Amino acid sequence: MENKIQVNIANHFISLKWLLFYIILTLLLLVYFYLTFGSEGLFILIIFLLLQMLPTVYLHYKYYVINKSIKCTLNEYKLEVFNKNMKYVYFPNDIEKIIIYKSANMDSWGIPLLTFENYYYSRIVLKDGNNIVLTSLLDNKIEDKLKVNFSTTTFNRKKGFSCFPDW
């Protein structure tokens, strides 16, 4: 089965859904606290909103920059990466391992404690020493698609608090 993945508007909204939910919830709480208690305490809610919003916006931007010009086609025989005007084709025997960087909170319930925890990425380590990074902005189910199409490849999992790429 062939899967085509790329950054698009739907993937932006899927990635930002928890932040949008948190913003709406915070705005409702701001209105409630203002009507009930006046302006006391609004500052704390605004600080909590910023603490959720700033890392998420930064991570979203960073993921966008990494994969904005990439389009991929995945199937059980190969990975095709289209980057600008270049086409790269990788077969399962070209891949040493695939490392998934994903928050541990997204495993059991799939509900992030923080709004940026639903972001994750996969680093495909090639035998020639190069890496390919595929973020969740390309597809929010990229891990599942890679596991289906490259079942003979070694998968490693790096669980962390969040998945900020280290470059």
Give a quick rundown of the structure.
This protein has a single domain, classed as PH-domain like (Roll).
Write a structural description:
- The radius of gyration is 19 Å and the shape is elongated.
- Helices cover 40% and strands 29% of the residues.
- The chain has one domain: PH-domain like (Roll).
- The chain is built from four helices and eight strands.
- The strands form two sheets. The protein has a four-stranded antiparallel beta sheet with strand order 1-2-3-4, with helices on one face. The protein has a four-stranded mixed beta sheet with strand order 7-6-5-8.
- With 167 residues, the chain is of the alpha+beta class.
- It starts with a strand and ends in a 7-residue tail after the last strand.
- The longest helix has 29 residues.
Which SSEs are present, and which pair or pack?
Layout (H helix, E strand, L loop, with lengths): L2 E4 L2 H29 L4 H26 L2 E6 L2 E6 L2 E5 L4 E9 L1 H4 L12 E6 L4 E5 L6 H8 L4 E7 L7
Parallel strand pairs: 5-8
Antiparallel strand pairs: 1-2, 2-3, 3-4, 5-6, 6-7
Helix pairs in contact: 1-2
